Amino acid sequence: MKPTQVLVALAAIAYAAPVSDDTKAKALEIDDDFPLAELEAYFEAHMNGETSEANSLHARQFSSSTYNQLTDGTPCRPVTMIYARGTTQAGNVGDPAAVGPVLFNNLASRIGLNNLAVQGVAYPANIAGYLAGGDAAGSRTMADLISRAATQCPSTKIIISGYSQGAQLVHNAAGMLSASVTNRVTAAVTFGDPKQKQAFGTIPSSRTRIFCRAGDNICDGGIIVTPAHSQYQQDAPAAAEWIAARSDPYYGAQVFVANINTMSHKVEWIFLKIKNSYHDNIERLAISKWAPQLSAEINLPDWVEDELREILIYEIIKTHMTQPFNRYSWIILRNMFGHDFDHHGKSATFLGHVFSVIAKIVLQTEDVDQQFWLDNMHLLTLGCFEIINDKTVDFTQGLLSDAGRLKAFFTPLLISAFPVVNGKLKNDEKTNSNHKKLRKHMTDRKSEKSSTLIKNEADFDDEDGPELKVEEEEDELGTRRTITFNSRKFNSVP
């Protein structure tokens, strides 16, 4: 059968059975004499002839057709992309000019090459799989890779993406994920998507983006590869911009600057937008330098105060900002040991995990033992230090448990730690000194008024630090603050 006859026959099938809005659309039934070989040759000729104007704008840092940075031993990175190529495309992501590598390079240029890991999906990518609604085994493979990323790299932002049949795999794989893994998917992005009218499992639509060009017959559920189906590299910059805004909390994100732990004043929010910065120094500045002023206008139980209140406030900020651990540990380490601590060392990370456990127990347990927390609140941080020094306890796995199991697991550890802490406070001068510094900082934070942003600049080491200036102006909407950060101005929202 000639290619033209193949197209006529298949087009008749495609247009006789338009794509349904039903998310459970059936795959085409293929007879034994169906001309798969001819159609496969047609797809290969048209889909692998892509050009990449967008890719010429960026150095081709991703210049291979195969990437396995989740499975080849590459260390976990802040963002992990699981990508499925289109029918007949090379390797497991397509050749360097295909939409996949063009997308990777555009995203890397925004968040940094070393912040992105790419894992392609190995599957046949043949026409039979496309006509079946996406290769079944490949869909399962993609789902397994997504689950592996969630387990292997607990802090990574997971992006799932695909082109053409690869887009079908994204839909299929998303429907196979557990609820906990689904929650880990930061964004789902597809190009030339035959299932554009279908959902991505239970991933919220706010986290999904579909690129379908006018005139793309594949997007309509057909089999004719029009020029529009080979032009999705042109959408790679927009897709990368959209992904970056969701995968990097400081890429156009709102950094909350206000007074922490104001016990009797209404907390004021200040929204500081920091664009185009993925770097840790910005985050450390926002948390460490402005730590005494960070807070949230939240409704915590009336009995919660002191260290416990600060821990809970930072856990809520952590959840909102999708941070990997409770940054209150940075405040504690700075309070006790000064500025020269390792922001991402084991002490900061493990202490942050412990604070998250405490927050989950207090906020999500119905029968909270208020008196236990009130009696031991002044020893809470030192007790947590005792626990993280126990090398036999694994906190990262415990974070995945529900509040009831965490309470049963964690409360006995605290009960055992508190007598040890009391003994050290009586007999160890260094522990006693650190505890006094910790309590003084907390008292200072509690006594500050919500209108105070920076109380004492002399408290911070600014020799090599960024320049920060805050100006206030009253208008009909209230107090508007202009924050100048390294000569860049950001206006607050009153």
In words, what does this structure look like?
The protein has 494 residues and is an alpha/beta fold. The strands form 3 sheets. Strands 2-1-3-4-5 form a 5-stranded parallel sheet, sandwiched between helices. It has a 3-stranded antiparallel sheet with strand order 8-9-10, with no helix packed on it. The chain has a two-stranded antiparallel ribbon with strand order 6-7. 42% of the residues lie in helices and 12% in strands. It folds into 2 domains: 3-247, 3-Layer(aba) Sandwich (Rossmann fold), CATH 3.40.50.1820; 253-479, no CATH class. The protein has 17 helices and 10 strands. Strand 9 and strand 10 (488-491) form a beta hairpin.
What is the gist of this entry?
By secondary structure, this protein is an alpha/beta fold.
Shape, please? elongated
CATH topology name of the largest domain, in short, is: Rossmann fold
Estimate percent helicity: 40-55%
Question: Whole-number average pLDDT?
Answer: 75
Structural class: alpha/beta
Strand arrangement, major sheet: 2-1-3-4-5
CATH architecture of the largest domain: 3-Layer(aba) Sandwich
Estimate the strand proportion: 5-15%
* CATH H level, superfamily name of the largest domain: Alpha/Beta hydrolase fold, catalytic domain
CATH class of the largest domain: Alpha Beta
The count of domains is: 2
Number of helices: 17
Radius of gyration: 27 Å
Describe the protein's topology.
Elements: H1 3-16, H2 36-47, E1 79-84, H3 99-111, E2 116-120, H4 127-131, H5 136-152, E3 157-163, H6 165-174, H7 179-184, E4 185-191, E5 208-211, H8 236-247, E6 253-256, E7 271-274, H9 280-289, H10 306-321, H11 328-337, H12 346-364, H13 370-376, H14 380-388, H15 395-398, H16 403-427, H17 429-447, E8 468-475, E9 478-485, E10 488-491
Parallel strand pairs: 1-2, 1-3, 3-4, 4-5
Antiparallel strand pairs: 6-7, 8-9, 9-10
Helix pairs in contact: 3-8, 5-6, 10-12, 11-12, 11-17, 12-14, 12-16, 14-16, 16-17
